[in-house]
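In this section we turn from sequence analysis to structure. A common task in structural bioinformatics is to predict how a protein folds when a small molecule is present, because the ligand can shape the pocket around it. The inputs are simple: the amino acid sequence and a SMILES string for the ligand, here fe (ii) ion. Study the lines below before reading on.
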Amino acid sequence: MVRVGLHVAAEKWLSGYIDSFRDEKGALHPLMEVKRTHGLRVRDNASMIASGLGWSGELLECGLTAALLHDTGRFPQFSRWGTYYDGASQDHGDLGEKTLRELFPAVDAASAGRWEDILLAVRLHNKKELPKEISPSALPLVRIVRDSDKLDVFRLVRTHVEENRINDLLPRIAPAGGYSEALVREVASERRGSYNNVHSLSDFLLVQLSWVFDLNFAPSFHMLRKEGVLSWMERILPPEETVNGFIRSVLRHAELMESA
Ligand SMILES: [Fe+2]
């Protein structure tokens, strides 16, 4: 059994770890503060999804712990490189796993297997492709972290766009402008887009829309609809025939999966 309260212990540890990045006045860099609150909201999303799925006991405890710790790597990443771009620094999922292995207090031997599952969910939370072989005990954790993370990023991006400060979150994109042709072709044929082809906010939103095909659990689709994320995107994306077809397929998929 995982020791009772692993999730509570993880929250305490993470809070102390983040404190180590505060300046002498106790202030955290605003971009690290974004990641601190993101981690808490991702945990809360996981809690809602888990409740929709009827998870309890050890599975629930591990799901919440993995969600809470998923972005641990962001803190050493920003501290060392001053950026959240993995390409210009290090993969933050890998860095999170490494940091937890080095700094998180040892878990008892009986919990070691579940702890490994949590570390795997942290490492894989940001990977475009998942490995074919993931153990049945780790798979639900990997999935709930990826869904919970995406749901909060949908929310974050929308808030930043509505408040006209998207460049605080995504400094490298143009807030206005149409789609990049390569990206439109990519999403139309592969149902997913790569960041290399993202130049404008419209491009970024298209890539975000493609994440919908990656969501795993019916309660995640339910939350997405309840928050009006997809209808908001549909409203603000510039109309273009190829893209309209893609948007329709995303909406259809979300509707089907919610009732699956
Ligand atoms: Fe992340």
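DSSP finds 13 helices and no strands in the chain. As an exercise, try to locate the residues that line the fe (ii) ion site and compare them with your own expectations.
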